[in-house]
Amino acid sequence: MRLFPCARLIAFAALAAPSVATGQVDLEFRALTPVRDPGETAQIGLYAVAGAGSVDPTVGAVEVVFSWDDAYLTLLGVDAANPANLIFSGFPVVGSNGLNESNPPADGDGLYIGLGPLGTPIDATAPGTLIAILNFESLYGTPGAAVDILTSGGTPARDTIVYDGETPNTIVTGMLSGTSVAIRCGPFDAAPPYGLLDLADVNVFATAFLAQNPLADQNNDGIYDLVDINLFVTGFLAGCATPP
User: Fold this and answer.
1) Helix (H, G, I), strand (E, B) or coil at 45
2) In angstroms, how far is CA 62 from the centroid of its own chain?
3) Cβ of 15: how many Cβ atoms within 10 Å?
4) Could you tell me the pTM of the whole model?
5) C-alpha angle 175/88/101, rounded to 5°?
6) What domain range includes position 241?
7) Do 83 and 151 belong to one domain?
């Protein structure tokens, strides 16, 4: 019978000293919406990935210390989708060692807790198993707003931990990796690198306009006319808004 680890289930405090196993499960943030406009929601997926050489590793719970560029992104919270059927998924303020000053945290770092379904460990696969989705509001144009998984954080320090899904209270944390989201200045920011306006944006818009490509439909009315050209020129000349 498979058992769910008891670690931090009550008030997120360890019930017993955890044993440490060879790292088997890597944690990765992946941008599910890699390019956004200001005001749009950027979705970041948390994935459990089977570490190199691991055989059928499982996950019972995760504690993830993470950070994000709060000049360009605001954390909105955990998405309503629950791909791993977690019994808890969120940002507890109590016991977060100062990482979660609010729920959700707003100061650029936080602690995410995910508790797997009782009796049903989550399989960590080589391609990656989606554990949860974090939603961020995109604020200003930038080539890349970072969202990272940290080894530790808070005072006193809390570690990022993956608990095994079959052997109670056993740590199987492997490699940690983050991601980033490109935020366009607006629809007139037509070419990468996004968040920067240059001749490439003009060339892409002109080519798209002549081809009646939706990329050039600046007001999304399905018509390619002088209105689209004026909107592009106005936005391009105004430039990218920057954080205060």
Assistant:
1) strand
2) 15
3) 13
4) 0.87
5) 80
6) 186-244
7) yes
